Structure prediction request, 535 residues.
Amino acid sequence: MYKKTLINLSSVTLACSIFLGSGLTSFAADPSSGYPEKSEAWVNDGREVTVDGNVTTDSSSLSAAYADGNGSHVTVNGDVENVNENWRSVGAFNGGVVEINGDVTSPNLGGCTSEGSTVGITGDVTSGGRGFITQGDDALTVVEGNVTANDTALINKNGSGTAVTGDVTGSTGINTESGTYITVGGDLNYTDNGIVVTDVKESDIYSGTNDDNGSIVVYGSINNNSGSSDNAVIAIKMDGESADEIISKIPDILVYELPEDTEIVSVSIDDEEIKDAVDAYVTKNINYIIKEDAASSSYYTISGYNTNDDNSLKTMTINSAITVAAQEGYTISAGDNVEVVDNGDNTYTIKLINSKGAITISARLTKSTSVITTAPAKASAPAQTSSDNGSSSSETEEIEAPFIFATFTVTGKTDASAEVLGANRDSADETFGLVSKPVIKVAAGSLTAKEYRNAFIKAVKEAPQGGIVRLETAAVSCIDKTMMAALAERPDVTLEVVFPYAGNTLDVTVPAGTDVMSLLDENGYCGFLYLNAKF
Prediction:
């Protein structure tokens, strides 16, 4: 679908490491010198320079950190700021490289990356004006933190690329010409427009040689903070003799979630017919990112989604549908903005019915499903029901068929184990003041739901002061409200849960004193996978 691979966030954190080697020279800032006009992090002669410490300047014409020309490479191991209200803090031009291991601050403009140049920033960019301008072929800006600006946060021109792993916030979030590549790993927050797309301007110094329209990807939510529903998420500001001419220049737009009760697309053109056609095209062709609940992703497969060239993202468009095939006994959910149809053959058709998005696929075990196991080696599918918040449900107490193969053991403190538990103090393996091997086996074997619940409560009640209750199972299961209530009455007890998942054995520790009742979902259950995600 896409002619050029999107900027992939999995490689963003590596971007700074692909710069040239370490600098040859090291400078330390002199705090008594005030704010000079030109810093030692300013290079235009092909040198590699490293500055250890913060760099602050006060110049109306020079960046605080600057690299101009091939071979010019500036590394700052600290924060960078130009306090002057008339200029920028960072600049990279004509193949120069600037690497900042810290934050960038400016009252005017965070920085500018030009044709063939690269800027990498491990911290945040904060600006009283515009955030960052990236312009020209092969210009790349990578920010591993957040970009926050009072004016437009990100400006891209002529085939350039920008990747931000955190949030982007500005009066306008992104202002870009056709043919650039922008990726935002967090949320995009705005008060005027979220994304503005314009024509490539002939007056620009840097001429791009784009072979396609580029892309804009927002992995998080786009949020309208203006308080007005008229401040559109996407503003198309292009000229053209026809709708087709404008549409042919619009970049691919991929998002996870759009704001409620907000105009999605606005088109700045007087011809109402062209305007309506462009509006309809953009609205129909926004690609909504499909996220997956990692804890349940092993129990279903998805087909029918759109994908970019490197398959890094699954997406769908408004009123399109995907098919999810679930394992026996599972049902599928995908969020509030989709329609889920049970096809009756363990497959589900999921249709996106509005433009808000927020699609997250999750598999849940139905409450009527009974899991029978006779030994750890024969354990079947996980005995749990995942709810929307990631916790789980299990069979009711009335189910008398074998529920799960489980072993409950209790470990106590060394100073109490001999008297309370009858442990052999001489042979005990003491680790951090605890007997590391089990000293009480409360229950083991193939248990019904009722036996499983009662064994858990018994283990918790009979555990010595400061003891550990260890639950080992042959399948993924859950803890219900009555079991959690027993644990809540023993804030001195540590819970360990050991269970198999996806070919591995997971060992989860719930520390003593945890507010365990807060872990339950609205149905009064807490799944092992949810515990694993929390702890």
